């Protein structure tokens, strides 16, 4: 009986084994589907953000001559831009819940591409024919390279997917790779902050490295918060874990400090330099953080990792070419250059400055102190001669002003 039943048992187990083998391709296809959903949400969000920012810029340009400094609040264009900005940020935020962190972060190059194209078409930036080859052809080449890099990122991006539950995030938070990464990042951040605050090292790389280190933590916490919200919506409540609120507070704090350093960088350097260097540094730091915290590249083969790195390099080059050929902003000068006006003579033939020096006071008409020429700064006086009147009974002014003749 046992010998007769054993073939039947083997025949019954074969379909089960076949079914177990067929589950893995379905899981892989589902993970690639999640990657595609997350990438499309990120691309949609960055496109909408670029359109929103250009709409608000267009509203400010139209109201440049308005006497009311808050007139843009009354325009539908500005409010439409604000609505699209919130919608785009929600799209980018939700994309972190579907795709790995290392895939979503480099896709911010889409906003640079969109801004370059919209700036020419929508804002109608003026250009001369001689500048077309130097500026716009290279910008179009940069857009093409950034698109190719984005395609490689989506195709060969990491395929690691994990439910963002409280237990998983806590386990990653206390893992030794992330603790070692956090130790190195804190040391580098403190050194950069010391040189920036105490030694006045206001270099663009120093400021944007501070932004990149904070941005990597922002990306890690955003993915944790977004993933736990999505898992809670699916039915498995995660909002009662303390790690959710820790990540939420860290996300808000790092985003605020990141915006503060970006505002300081924008006061010192051109926006095109900030866009290119900031994208490269922030993307590199965020990918490193995602690889150590979420282990994005675990189980990936060498070919996928190399092609993903190649896509990042191509996207970096494309963003650099796009931002390299943008117009440089003209700094504001707080005085009028009198000697630059045609047909206008200077007060002093020897070239003494009439207008205030930028290193001195910004008050109009302030002059540099020069003790060697006191006569220039001495106010002119009129000659006064007292005259005695013969009649004592008539009151007369004690003095009179003599007019100069032409001979004098």
Describe the structure.
With 408 residues, this protein is mainly α. 64% of the residues lie in helices and 1% in strands. It contains twelve helices and two strands. It has helices at 2-62, 76-95, 101-104, 109-121, 129-155, 166-173, 176-197, 204-233, 242-268, 271-293, 302-324, 374-377, and strands at 384-386, 399-401. Strands 1-2 form a two-stranded antiparallel ribbon. α10 (271-293) packs antiparallel against α11. The longest helix is centred in the first third of the chain and has 61 residues, at 2-62. The radius of gyration is 34 Å and the shape is globular. The model is unreliable at 1-27, 329-341, 343-380 and 389-394 (pLDDT under 50).
The percent range for helix content is 55-70%
Globally, the shape reads globular
Overall residue-averaged pLDDT value: 75
Low-pLDDT stretches are 1-27, 329-341, 343-380, 389-394
Distance between the termini: 144 Å
Secondary-structure content class: mainly alpha
Give the SSE order as H and E letters: HHHHHHHHHHHHEE
**Subunit arrangement of the protein:** single chain
Largest sheet: 2 strands, antiparallel
Structure summary, number of beta strands: 2
Query: Per DSSP, what share of the residues sits in E-state strands of 2 or more residues?
Result: under 5%
Task: Count up the helices.
Answer: 12
Radius of gyration: 34 Å
In which order are the strands of the major sheet placed?
A: 1-2
Family: Belongs to the NIPA family.
Keywords: Membrane, Transmembrane, Transmembrane helix
GO molecular function: magnesium ion transmembrane transporter activity
Protein name: NPAL3 protein
